[in-house]
Specification:
The complex is a heterodimer. By secondary structure, chain A is of the alpha/beta class. Chain A is about 65% helix and about 10% strand. Chain A has a seven-stranded mixed beta sheet with strand order 2-3-4-1-5-6-8, with helices on both faces. The longest helix of chain A has about 40 residues. Classes of the chains: A alpha/beta, B alpha+beta.
């Protein structure tokens, strides 16, 4: 068997053109998502075998242009310049061809072989557009394939065309602008020739005319001043020709060419505009209706999660209990094997306890995926922009914050959509104030004990809202102090409303939910084992001859263990919020995951680890031991205190420094402590 | 200025009074000197919603204040 030929392909395209769908169809599950060095942009690669060829496909981040505005644009550009793919597949939205060609022209300026894929041909036809592929192909000098990505139409032809382009190794002439522009470019190229430049000179020349500071950094100061003074001389002529500066002149050249292509290749019959989206927007973005509608949708989302999630949680609880019992049964009755305890109490109890929230978190992400896929989430950024602007953030910060109600980890990763680095950092720091799924059991336990049934739902809402409020106040403070810095004005395209496909929903939900499962399998597993070790060591030996009950032994064991000692160490501080060493050690244990608070209290009240919010004896003991103001203080502390270990780790990797997670850890704990103590002390006066 | 247009009004961009970064960013989204824009909604506060060749674009008020427009 002869070795297959390798072809490196990059897929480029603007946002909302269906690029990812095509990438997913081409590569199937053979995908690898990594990270570009130095920036937090997903690097997606996949492989596919086709005939005698092995294609390595690199899905570039969606960008409107190839300038250096966002990290995505810089990454996309660097891949083409440094990794030199054999060819680029440029996916464009056929129904919006002219705007999409702006990116195409910039790819062609880079003199890289391009295959153009006209996607969404069905929509273009519905809108009365007739597109001549051959005319575009002639104008741009590149092969053009059309199809409908979401229905897999045209993808085979796309692959065969790509291979043909690779095999012919034909040098594409590249596009040429008007004579006058080309003469300016030639002029700069002459200067560049004095300096050895590895990149395509014509492209560099255009970028220099565009005052691209990323490219300017490529040259040493002396040479840059030399080129700049040269361009300054050209600038006078450019102004005479175009009546504008060189940046505007380059833009104008591109759009002139696009207009030219459009005249030759596109025929429009009648104006069909999607009036549906327009009508929906009239309500969704209505000055007075938008906010109530948003809160209504959020309410529906949470109700959906709680109503559907509860029975699933119960089912999983039974399942883990059953697994625990089954594993336990492998040892003889009454055995005090440490290994059994490690597996049953440490691993199954710890990881299982966290996995219980998987249904809630997946449901939350499913709901959010629906709101995103339908086009609503993009509007949320618009609706919230004016409120967020007061805090020094943009509307785009709001979407990751909503994700935070599921799990902070994917939410913090979701903050990548925010271009401005100060706004992004602020958002990352406040996301853990959004009450995540793992904190809910703590509230449920305490609220069910201390609050009369008719006020329970209201109290839960109050807790969530309080978290949001504190987060927003902190955001404002951060933006006024440590995270000052410029703001990015909002500029975003709103996709048309659409019914998301099941496939898209599944991919979105899984993409985010899997981070939660990963952390359950890694960090939480490790921390569960550590916590277990801290709970069972040092070993407590019942004095000889004493006839202590098993429960008493367990209690003494925990009280004298490392975790018990930690609890006693923090007791003086916890006492200020009405707690004791038990609550103290439960707080410390909850660093692993917030819900561990519940199981830790269960252990400490010597009931074994398998307790939940319905356990009456635990409830009775807690009610007898703590007051209502203390319970309120515990809730507030769990809501606001240091993020869990997994969140700490993701903040470290997303900000690429230890500084921010440490700052967040101590900052949040301090706020939580202050608020909890305040609540308890004030509450004590009145209740 | 685009920010002064009322809901439903259309106009042609005559100038973008801003640094080249914003000019390039707008150009990449298809908004250049000569483009036709119509205002879908222009609330008292917050971003405007603009229609540019059938695409809806949300734009911060500060940005809209830098786009000179001739009502047509």
């Amino acid at each position: 068997m002869s070795a297959k030929k390798f072809i490196n392909i990059a897929i480029a395209g603007q946002p909302n053109v269906g690029k990812s769908t095509i990438f997913n169809f081409l590569t199937g599950i053979r995908q690898h998502v990594g990270n570009y060095p130095g920036v937090t942009v997903d690097r997606k690669e996949g492989e596919v075998s086709y005939g005698d060829y092995h294609l390595k496909i690199h899905d570039l981040p969606g960008t409107y242009s190839m300038s250096a505005f966002s990290p995505e644009e810089i990454v996309a550009r660097d891949v083409i310049v440094n990794e030199k793919p054999d060819l680029v597949i440029n996916v464009v939205d056929a129904s919006n061809l002219e705007k999409n060609l702006y990116l195409t022209l910039q790819l062609l300026e880079m003199r890289v072989p391009v295959v153009l894929f006209l996607n969404m041909m069905d929509i273009a036809e519905k809108n009365g557009m007739k597109i001549s592929k051959s005319a575009i192909s002639n104008e741009l000098g590149i092969p053009v394939v059309s199809g409908i990505g979401s229905k897999k139409e045209g993808l085979t032809e796309l692959l065969t065309t790509a291979i043909a382009v690779y095999e012919k190794k034909r040098q594409y002439p590249g596009i040429t602008y008007s004579d006058k522009m080309e003469s300016f470019i030639e002029d700069i190229k002459l200067v560049l020739a004095q300096h050895s430049v590895e990149m395509t000179q014509g492209w560099i020349a255009v970028k220099l005319l565009e005052k691209d500071n990323q490219i300017e950094q490529y040259f040493d100061d002396g040479f840059l001043t030399h080129i700049k003074s040269h361009i300054k001389e050209l600038e006078r002529e450019i102004r005479k020709e175009y009546g504008a500066d060189s940046v505007a002149a380059v833009i104008k050249e591109r759009y002139n060419l696009i207009e030219d292509i459009s005249k030759k290749a596109i025929k429009r019959s009648g104006e069909v505009r999607s009036s549906f989206s327009r009508k929906v927007d009239a309500i969704v973005l209505h000055e007075h209706l938008s906010l109530p509608l948003f809160f209504l949708l959020m309410f529906v989302l949470f109700q959906m999660v709680f109503t559907l999630g509860d029975p699933m949680m119960g089912g999983l609880e039974t399942l883990f209990g059953w697994i625990g019992d089954a594993v336990s049964g492998l040892w003889p009755d009454g055995s005090d094997s440490l290994l059994r305890s490690l597996i049953v109490d440490g691993i199954i109890g710890g990881v299982g306890g966290v996995l219980l929230f998987a249904p809630n978190i997946f449901l939350m992400f499913f709901g959010i995926a629906f709101l995103e896929g339908s086009g609503y989430m993009a509007r949320v950024a618009v609706i919230m922009d004016k409120y967020m602007a007061r805090l020094g953030l943009s509307g785009k910060s709001f979407v990751p914050m909503i994700l935070g109600f599921g799990c902070s980890v994917p939410a913090i990763m979701g903050a990548r959509i925010i271009e401005n680095k100060w706004e992004r950092l602020t958002t990352i720091l406040i996301i853990p104030f959004m009450s995540c799924g793992a904190r809910l059991p703590v509230y449920l336990l305490l609220v069910s004990i201390f609050i009369p049934a008719e006020y329970q739902a209201l109290s839960l809402w109050g807790i969530y809202m309080f978290g949001v409020m504190v987060g927003l106040i902190v955001a404002k403070l951060l933006r006024k102090t440590v995270l000052k810095g410029d703001e990015n004005p909002l500029l975003m395209e709103l996709p048309g409303y659409a019914m998301p496909t099941v496939r898209t929903l599944a991919i979105y939900t899984w993409d985010r939910g899997k981070h939660f499962l990963e952390k359950a399998g890694t960090i939480i597993l490790a921390v569960s084992i550590i916590l277990w070790v801290m709970t069972v060591f040092p070993r407590y030996e019942a004095p000889a001859g004493s006839n202590m009950s098993n429960q008493q032994i367990v209690k003494m064991q925990v009280e004298n263990s490392f975790i018990g000692k930690v609890g006693k160490f923090v007791e003086p501080a916890v006492a200020l919020m009405g707690g004791d060493w038990k609550v103290g050690s439960a707080f410390v244990a909850s660093l692993a995951a917030k819900e561990v608070f519940v199981s830790q209290l269960g252990i400490l009240f010597s009931l074994g680890s398998d307790v939940d919010e319905d356990n009456n004896s635990l409830q009775a003991k807690i009610k007898q031991r703590y007051s209502l103001p203390a319970a309120l203080a515990f809730i507030l502390f769990i809501l606001l205190s240091a993020p869990c270990i997994a969140t700490f780790a993701i903040v470290k990797s997303e900000t690429r420094s230890w500084r921010w997670p440490i700052f967040q850890f101590f900052g949040m704990t301090l706020i939580a402590f202050g608020v909890a103590v305040f609540a308890y002390q004030i509450g004590r006066l009145f209740l | 200025m685009l920010s002064m247009l009322k809901n439903g009004e259309r106009g042609k961009v005559t100038e973008i009074l801003s640094g080249s970064d914003l000019v390039k960013r707008l150009a990449a989204m298809g908004i250049v000197v000569g483009s036709c824009l119509s205002v879908v909604s222009n609330p008292n506060r917050g971003p405007l919603l603009v229609d540019s060749d059938g695409k809806r674009v949300a734009m911060g008020r500060g940005m809209a204040e830098k786009i000179a427009i001739e009502v047509v």
